[in-house]
Amino acid sequence: MLKLYDFLLSGNCYKVRLLLSLLGLEYESITVGLKAGEHKKPPFLELNPFGQVPALTDGAVVLRDSQAILVYIARRYGGTDWLPEEAAALGSVMQWLSTASKEIANTVATARLHYLFGTAIDITTVEKQSYALLQVMDQHLATRHWLASDRPTIADIACFPYIGLAADGKLSLDAYPHIVAWVERIKQLPGYVGMPGL
Amino acid sequence: MLKLYDFLLSGNCYKVRLLLSLLGLEYESITVGLKAGEHKKPPFLELNPFGQVPALTDGAVVLRDSQAILVYIARRYGGTDWLPEEAAALGSVMQWLSTASKEIANTVATARLHYLFGTAIDITTVEKQSYALLQVMDQHLATRHWLASDRPTIADIACFPYIGLAADGKLSLDAYPHIVAWVERIKQLPGYVGMPGL
Q: What range(s) does the GST N-terminal domain occupy (chains A, B) (predicted)?
């Protein structure tokens, strides 16, 4: 049985729940008490020494990092639909996994942490960087329905949560109609599930 | 012919040069004038709208992001040695590509930017986060020779440059003997090339 070390309000945990739901996979969700600091103590640190949710176990397989977990689930249980095998198509997906891992995490997701959980940051700079990122993504989506392919892939699943949750960081998507349309397309996928704020 | 849009002092460009050299692949290196801001203007922005080096073209294939470029090259030209196909092994590599993309970029690489190029940051916080990361990596490497497998993979190539360049950010590796040994193992790989600072 897949076990997801989970937290309801984490967009990174949510993206794993979303892929599991889209693939119709059963799993056990184990809530990690972030407010009590459980992610920074054993036994959780044995699953992920970086002290971050999510983590996933699948029998003897133990994985940290939401993007890596998406890759594992897609390859193990999703055929090649959600993660292509051919080099250029795989590279195209990987570009957006990196964008989710760094640019989205450092901008829109950080603004959300600031307003929702009180994390101290330079909000003016983060807001400016967030809108610069949204501008690039909006232009990219102006000529295509999905980020990395002509069908949805884990690139979309990885980038979607914190973009869709932009309002939690007091960021408006109004000027980005192609992003708004893409968010709606994801919400229409068979098996879609939401999270608080989505 | 592979064309790498390149910058000598960029660790992200270097990791691509390193893999190309380890695989014995010929390529054309095209220097992007970062000091003149060429990466933030057309025509470079058409290759990478995020305005960052490296970018790679291979015929009609255009890729941004150093981790995605490593994935493409490894899958297209490296068989399964540098990037395994099996789900758990692939996920294991992906964990470290995310670490390179985010944690290493936000810590040791940022400290280097500060001291080498004068980027304004909260250096005290970044230094603390850098040593926390090095501690986790050192413990991970205490029981294994390579980050993600029993042989070198692109996980090692992705993480190596900015860890190996830690001294540029006035960070010492002295307390991390397993990292130091891993850096030396990478330097012994057939086809290894260095960069200034390595």
A: 1-81
| Residue type present at position A123 | I
Does one domain contain both A67 and A94? no
Helices marked H in B64-193: 66-77, 87-99, 105-106, 108-117, 123-141, 154-164, 177-187
For residue A175, give the H/E element and its range: none
The ipTM, to two decimals, is 0.97
Query: Is A95's CB within 8 Å of B68's CB?
Result: yes
pLDDT, tens digit, for every residue of A89-120? 999 999 999 999 999 999 999 999 999 999 99
* pLDDT (tens digit per residue) in A173-194: 999 999 999 999 999 999 999 9
Say whether residue A1 is in contact with chain B using an 8 A CB cutoff.
Answer: no
End-of-domain residue from the set A21, A56, A77: A77
Residue B196: inside a domain, yes or no? Answer: no
